Amino acid sequence: xxxxxxxxxxxxxxxxxxxxxxxxxxxxxxxxxxxxxxxxxxxxxxxxxxxxxxxxxxxxxxxxxxxxxxxxxxxxxxxxxxxxxxxxxxxxxxxxxxxxxxxxxxxxxxxxxxxxxxxxxxxxxxxxxxxxxxxxxxxxxxxxxxxxxxxxxxxxxxxxxxxxxxxxxxxxxxxxxxx
Length: 179
Prior knowledge:
Layout (H helix, E strand, L loop, with lengths): L2 E3 L6 E3 L11 H14 L1 H14 L3 H8 L1 H17 L3 H10 L21 E6 L4 E7 H9 L4 H12 L20
Antiparallel strand pairs: 1-2, 3-4
Protein backbone atom coordinates (compact mmCIF):
# COMPACT_ATOMS: atom_id res chain seq x y z
CA UNK A 1 0.00 0.00 0.00
CA UNK A 2 1.39 3.39 -1.03
CA UNK A 3 1.61 6.14 1.56
CA UNK A 4 2.27 9.82 0.84
CA UNK A 5 2.96 12.86 2.96
CA UNK A 6 0.54 15.73 2.40
CA UNK A 7 2.49 18.89 1.59
CA UNK A 8 -0.29 21.00 3.14
CA UNK A 9 -0.94 19.36 6.54
CA UNK A 10 2.21 17.21 6.75
CA UNK A 11 0.32 14.02 7.67
CA UNK A 12 1.16 10.64 6.15
CA UNK A 13 -1.90 9.12 4.49
CA UNK A 14 -2.77 6.21 2.21
CA UNK A 15 -2.57 6.79 -1.53
CA UNK A 16 -6.35 6.59 -2.00
CA UNK A 17 -6.71 9.63 0.28
CA UNK A 18 -5.26 11.80 -2.50
CA UNK A 19 -6.77 12.98 -5.76
CA UNK A 20 -4.83 11.97 -8.87
CA UNK A 21 -1.61 13.95 -9.36
CA UNK A 22 -2.17 16.03 -6.21
CA UNK A 23 0.31 16.65 -3.39
CA UNK A 24 -2.41 17.66 -0.93
CA UNK A 25 -4.65 15.03 0.69
CA UNK A 26 -8.38 15.07 -0.14
CA UNK A 27 -9.22 16.67 3.21
CA UNK A 28 -6.83 19.61 2.65
CA UNK A 29 -7.84 19.95 -1.01
CA UNK A 30 -11.56 19.98 -0.15
CA UNK A 31 -11.04 22.54 2.63
CA UNK A 32 -9.04 24.77 0.30
CA UNK A 33 -11.59 24.70 -2.52
CA UNK A 34 -14.51 25.19 -0.14
CA UNK A 35 -12.83 28.30 1.27
CA UNK A 36 -11.89 29.46 -2.24
CA UNK A 37 -15.50 29.13 -3.43
CA UNK A 38 -16.73 31.10 -0.40
CA UNK A 39 -14.22 33.93 -0.77
CA UNK A 40 -14.54 34.17 -4.57
CA UNK A 41 -18.30 33.61 -4.79
CA UNK A 42 -19.09 36.66 -6.94
CA UNK A 43 -16.19 36.15 -9.35
CA UNK A 44 -17.13 32.48 -9.85
CA UNK A 45 -20.78 33.40 -10.33
CA UNK A 46 -19.84 35.98 -12.98
CA UNK A 47 -17.46 33.59 -14.76
CA UNK A 48 -20.15 30.88 -14.88
CA UNK A 49 -22.72 33.39 -16.12
CA UNK A 50 -20.41 34.49 -18.96
CA UNK A 51 -19.70 30.88 -19.92
CA UNK A 52 -23.42 30.07 -20.05
CA UNK A 53 -24.01 33.11 -22.27
CA UNK A 54 -21.26 32.13 -24.73
CA UNK A 55 -22.26 28.42 -24.63
CA UNK A 56 -26.06 28.50 -24.25
CA UNK A 57 -26.74 24.90 -25.29
CA UNK A 58 -23.65 23.20 -23.88
CA UNK A 59 -25.21 21.39 -20.93
CA UNK A 60 -28.25 20.26 -22.95
CA UNK A 61 -26.10 19.01 -25.82
CA UNK A 62 -23.67 17.32 -23.45
CA UNK A 63 -26.48 15.57 -21.60
CA UNK A 64 -28.12 14.29 -24.76
CA UNK A 65 -24.85 13.01 -26.26
CA UNK A 66 -23.77 11.39 -22.96
CA UNK A 67 -27.19 10.45 -21.53
CA UNK A 68 -26.42 6.79 -20.78
CA UNK A 69 -23.10 7.61 -19.11
CA UNK A 70 -24.73 10.41 -17.09
CA UNK A 71 -27.49 8.12 -15.85
CA UNK A 72 -24.94 5.47 -14.84
CA UNK A 73 -22.69 8.05 -13.20
CA UNK A 74 -25.63 9.49 -11.24
CA UNK A 75 -26.67 5.99 -10.19
CA UNK A 76 -23.15 5.19 -8.95
CA UNK A 77 -22.86 8.53 -7.15
CA UNK A 78 -26.27 8.15 -5.50
CA UNK A 79 -25.52 4.59 -4.35
CA UNK A 80 -22.16 5.64 -2.91
CA UNK A 81 -23.34 8.80 -1.17
CA UNK A 82 -26.66 7.47 0.18
CA UNK A 83 -25.71 3.92 1.13
CA UNK A 84 -21.92 3.63 0.80
CA UNK A 85 -22.34 0.89 -1.85
CA UNK A 86 -20.86 0.24 -5.27
CA UNK A 87 -22.87 -1.25 -8.14
CA UNK A 88 -20.98 -4.53 -7.64
CA UNK A 89 -21.84 -4.62 -3.92
CA UNK A 90 -25.51 -4.00 -4.78
CA UNK A 91 -25.39 -6.86 -7.30
CA UNK A 92 -23.74 -9.09 -4.67
CA UNK A 93 -26.52 -8.35 -2.15
CA UNK A 94 -29.14 -9.10 -4.82
CA UNK A 95 -27.42 -12.39 -5.70
CA UNK A 96 -27.03 -13.38 -2.03
CA UNK A 97 -30.80 -12.94 -1.63
CA UNK A 98 -31.44 -14.87 -4.90
CA UNK A 99 -33.40 -11.82 -6.06
CA UNK A 100 -36.05 -12.49 -3.41
CA UNK A 101 -37.63 -9.80 -1.20
CA UNK A 102 -36.63 -10.30 2.46
CA UNK A 103 -40.19 -9.60 3.64
CA UNK A 104 -42.70 -11.13 1.21
CA UNK A 105 -40.43 -13.74 -0.47
CA UNK A 106 -41.40 -12.62 -3.98
CA UNK A 107 -39.00 -12.23 -6.89
CA UNK A 108 -37.66 -8.70 -7.47
CA UNK A 109 -36.14 -6.96 -10.48
CA UNK A 110 -32.81 -5.23 -9.86
CA UNK A 111 -32.76 -1.86 -11.61
CA UNK A 112 -36.44 -2.05 -12.44
CA UNK A 113 -38.71 0.96 -12.19
CA UNK A 114 -42.06 -0.79 -12.06
CA UNK A 115 -43.47 -4.12 -10.96
CA UNK A 116 -41.48 -5.56 -8.06
CA UNK A 117 -38.36 -3.45 -8.32
CA UNK A 118 -35.67 -4.06 -5.69
CA UNK A 119 -35.20 -1.23 -3.20
CA UNK A 120 -32.34 -0.77 -0.76
CA UNK A 121 -33.79 -0.97 2.74
CA UNK A 122 -31.76 0.88 5.34
CA UNK A 123 -32.04 2.03 8.91
CA UNK A 124 -32.57 5.79 8.75
CA UNK A 125 -31.17 6.37 12.23
CA UNK A 126 -27.84 4.57 11.92
CA UNK A 127 -27.61 4.79 8.10
CA UNK A 128 -26.98 1.06 7.69
CA UNK A 129 -28.20 -1.10 4.80
CA UNK A 130 -30.43 -3.99 5.95
CA UNK A 131 -30.98 -5.64 2.56
CA UNK A 132 -33.16 -5.46 -0.54
CA UNK A 133 -36.94 -5.43 -0.43
CA UNK A 134 -39.58 -5.04 -3.15
CA UNK A 135 -41.51 -1.89 -4.04
CA UNK A 136 -44.61 -2.92 -2.11
CA UNK A 137 -42.80 -3.86 1.10
CA UNK A 138 -40.69 -0.69 0.90
CA UNK A 139 -43.85 1.42 0.71
CA UNK A 140 -45.33 -0.52 3.61
CA UNK A 141 -42.32 0.01 5.87
CA UNK A 142 -42.18 3.66 4.87
CA UNK A 143 -45.86 4.08 5.66
CA UNK A 144 -45.31 2.57 9.09
CA UNK A 145 -42.25 4.80 9.57
CA UNK A 146 -40.08 1.74 10.42
CA UNK A 147 -41.90 1.75 13.78
CA UNK A 148 -42.27 -1.73 15.31
CA UNK A 149 -45.07 -0.61 17.64
CA UNK A 150 -47.15 0.73 14.73
CA UNK A 151 -46.53 -2.54 12.83
CA UNK A 152 -47.76 -4.53 15.86
CA UNK A 153 -50.85 -2.33 16.01
CA UNK A 154 -51.46 -2.98 12.29
CA UNK A 155 -51.18 -6.76 12.87
CA UNK A 156 -53.62 -6.46 15.77
CA UNK A 157 -55.99 -4.50 13.54
CA UNK A 158 -55.81 -7.11 10.76
CA UNK A 159 -56.35 -10.00 13.19
CA UNK A 160 -59.11 -8.28 15.13
CA UNK A 161 -60.94 -5.58 13.09
CA UNK A 162 -62.71 -2.89 15.15
CA UNK A 163 -66.19 -4.35 14.62
CA UNK A 164 -65.04 -7.72 15.98
CA UNK A 165 -62.67 -6.72 18.78
CA UNK A 166 -63.61 -7.89 22.22
CA UNK A 167 -61.59 -7.05 25.34
CA UNK A 168 -60.19 -10.59 25.58
CA UNK A 169 -59.26 -10.65 21.87
CA UNK A 170 -57.00 -7.59 22.13
CA UNK A 171 -53.28 -8.21 22.15
CA UNK A 172 -51.48 -6.65 25.12
CA UNK A 173 -49.55 -3.94 23.33
CA UNK A 174 -48.22 -1.08 25.37
CA UNK A 175 -46.72 1.82 23.50
CA UNK A 176 -42.94 1.81 24.02
CA UNK A 177 -41.34 4.65 25.94
CA UNK A 178 -39.96 7.43 23.75
CA UNK A 179 -36.19 7.72 24.01
